[in-house]
Write a structure and sequence with these properties.
single chain; mainly alpha; 6 helices; 79% helix; 0% strand; rod-shaped
Length: 183
């Protein structure tokens, strides 16, 4: 049995839990944005290198340079590279890495605003101990969280795991108060 699930949480504890979820999701979205940027850059490099190879082959055959393979293998290689550039360009265009990166970035920013709103609310009600309206505001924050999540595709588990690793590194270097995840 899970002791945390068995006990009844107060509205403030639920709000703190929501804030922790928002934080984890925000960090994961920023990691997803970075991953999409890397995919985009690497894809462009591959297309560029394949294209440069095609140009080099065309120049070499255009100037009738002596190539060790002969004309027929060079034409076959040129055709294969042309098909590879076309196919890979279509795959990259369909993957839309740059657009997806921008969406993850925007989503992370929205989650950042939500987390700050929750933190501000918690800071205002904790010193006074006032809990009037906490249930309603928790529902509202939860609704906003759901709306933000639904606005963008979900990040990969890898993005969350990357956050856990970064969080652990920050903990070990002493730059954060958060506990490192249990192994």
């Amino acid at each position: 049995m899970n002791a945390k699930r068995d006990r009844v949480e107060t509205p403030i504890e639920l709000l703190k839990d929501l804030r922790a979820k928002v934080h984890k999701t925000r960090e994961s979205r920023f990691n997803a944005q970075a991953r999409m940027d890397i995919h985009n850059r690497c894809s462009l490099w591959v297309i560029t290198l394949l294209s440069v190879s095609l140009v080099a082959l065309s120049v070499a055959t255009g100037f009738s340079l002596k190539l060790p393979l002969g004309e027929v293998p060079i034409n076959v290689i040129s055709t294969i590279l042309s098909v590879a550039v076309l196919a890979y360009s279509c795959i990259v265009a369909m993957s839309n890495f740059a657009l997806r990166a921008e969406r993850f970035l925007q989503n992370g920013r929205e989650l950042d605003h939500l987390e700050r709103d929750i933190a501000l609310y918690l800071a205002q009600c904790q010193p006074t101990g006032a809990i009037d309206g906490v249930c309603e505001i928790t529902r509202e924050f939860s609704r906003r969280y759901t709306d933000v999540l639904e606005a963008t595709e979900n990040h990969k588990e890898l993005d969350y795991l990357t956050w856990l690793v970064k969080k652990g590194e920050q903990h070990e270097s002493g730059s954060t108060n958060e506990q490192a995840p249990a192994a």
